[in-house]
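Researcher: Next sequence.
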Amino acid sequence: MTIRVLLADDHAIIRDAITATVGSSREFAFVGQASDGRQAVRLAAELKPDVIVMDIAMPELNGIDATRQILAADPHMRILALSMHTGQQFVTEMLRAGARGYILKDSPLEELELAIRTVAEGRAYLGKGPADAVLDDYVKHLDGRTPTSTSMHRSLTPRERECLQLIGEGWSTKEIAARLSLSPKTVETHRRQIMEKTGIYSLAGLIKYAIREGLTTVD
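Model: Next structure:
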């Protein structure tokens, strides 16, 4: 049986490389590509793929929040994270969002194929780096230790996270309002709430925070 795959990554060269290699096998059919999180959410609803291979750091809407939105609409969707990020917070937040697997971009193509196949079968798959991060997080909980910093994914609302990502990408209040179908006043309210929750009261500080949390990148 052919596994229908939706690939979400903001780098065209990566999408093309994966579809040209993994997609050459009759076992996999890449039914769509998304270059940002919002497009991934839309295509997931339209195409109903068996597996979504999801990058984390994408413009407009990051992979973690895109995963949350996709699974809120269809809890049976199966998502595999494919990321360059090895940090514990990225792995654990993606899994908390509902992803069934996590693999690094420097993994061999054979491992990516295995991960897609495993997730399509309804089982979980973790590459070595992500597995180490999950184990470390588990050990910290056993020891009663808490992380040195609390991820904003646990304190901000979904809409606040969307606003923070767009702030980090340099969008103005009016532009954010237009993209999210909100009033500028509502966006300003979200910005104020973000500042109060994070304790960061400058635009530069919010941008640095968004980058550190993986909502946006410097490229």
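Model: The radius of gyration is 18 Å. Strands lie at 3-8, 28-34, 51-54, 79-83, 101-104, 125-126.
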